[in-house]
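Section 3.1 - Work completed
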Amino acid sequence: MLDYKNIKGGKNMSNNINARIIALRKEKNMSQEVLSEKTGVSKQTISEWERGETTPDITSIIALADTFGLSIDEFIYGEEFQSNASINKKRKNAIGTIASLICTITYLYISFIYGLWHPGWLVFLLIPIVYALLDYFEANKDLSEKLNRK
């Protein structure tokens, strides 16, 4: 049996959701009526959610998250939430980038010290550098998207 008290949000999950709906709706300058139109529910239902009388079902949570431009996890848990898969992906990308750059620097060092340099090898040296630049720009893109949401 799953112990819901140990889950983030746990017993008072509905209080978190109704507070999130109110905060996000006000942040986006939406009335309850506009939000109800965008999510496909009645204005009364939005009001009940915000007062904590009822909680949205999974279909409504998906519609709310989509309306506010958030993932379901971000909608339920807050903007600071990042899934473990996302963190692991970033960690693997960082390790791969660092390893590639270390190999490139080591290769350049050995090539120049022992005279094994050939200009045609520049193509192979550019691959890890290009990946490092792509990772850098992708990380900045994610950051700018988060800042633009606020």
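Second construct:
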Amino acid sequence: MAREKRIEMRNRNPKRCGRLVALTLLLAFLPVSAQALTLADVDAGATLVSGDLTITFEAGSVTVLGDLDMDLSLYSVDATSDGFELSGPLAVFGAGGFGTLLLDFDVEATAAIVDLGLAMNGVALGATAFGAVTTTFDVGAGLGTVVSGAGGAAFTDAASIAPTTTVSGTTAVQLLAASPGELASIATFRQGFELLSVAEPAHLMMLSIGLLGLAAMGRRRTPRV
């Protein structure tokens, strides 16, 4: 009996190996989850999906000037819950260091966009060191954030707009470190879009049923004359 069991186990091994080989091949050909885009991807033409937003970058949408690193593959562009975020070697050093990055984008939403937001994380060391991120939109709105070595900073900005499902914008990053030993750097900036809240059909149905129930109760409680 034990001998027959050993023979049966040996006979099963080829089948098991076959299943393992098939599984390995299947995993090898499964699509890999999407990685974060780089500015090189964006400049070639790319799309990010962020919840109910589709953000499109046309080919040639990136411009880098001055002392910023020209290797676009070093910059990362990630979808966030309400827009996108860019990070990378956005830094210049004195004396006379300066740099500019321009990024064009188009946004399409499934519901109306009613608010625009911009946030950045940066540092400026030195009296003339300066860093700014601004965005201008085709709907007539503009946002601006700034950090200055001379004092004062505004790391967030927001604006309300007339409801629309599409907007186009240009974000400009500007850095200056004019004197020796100065530094201006922006670690990240984030562009956000807030959509008009619309009640879902199921919620509307529940609300309607509740109102009908209250109306029926009111009729029952109304005394007859």
